[in-house]
Specification:
Length: 111
């Protein structure tokens, strides 16, 4: 387990720090979220299955494009891409899943 905080510096040299957050390693027996299908094609619907130990009231899921923009955000135990495949370009996206202080990032390829 590691603790981090981010230092953000603007163009004038002013800076601020984020709050401290914890990153835990994925142990062999630790269940993690499943993103499927991966790669995603036009015929499929994106789904994210969360492990049982995730608290659905504290879980936030974000689909992030290569520029860092959040394409879709959802809360709860499951996530489906209702955007339609036409809006997703064939590139690598990130799925960020936050459960309280725990953050898991998965890669998603779109073809």
């Amino acid at each position: 387990m590691r603790y981090y905080r981010i230092k953000q510096v603007d163009e004038y040299g002013d800076y601020s720090y984020s709050s401290v957050f914890k990153i835990t390693g994925q142990g062999k027996n630790q269940e993690k979220p499943i993103v499927y299908p991966n790669p995603l094609t036009k015929q499929n619907t994106l789904q994210v299955q969360l492990p049982a130990h995730f608290d659905q009231g504290r879980t936030n899921i974000m689909l992030i494009d290569p520029l860092g923009e959040v394409i879709q955000e959802s809360s709860g135990t499951s996530f489906q891409n209702h955007l339609g495949q036409k809006t997703l370009k064939p590139v690598l996206y990130l799925i960020q899943i936050q459960n309280g202080c725990e953050i898991v990032v998965e890669k998603l390829w779109v073809r």
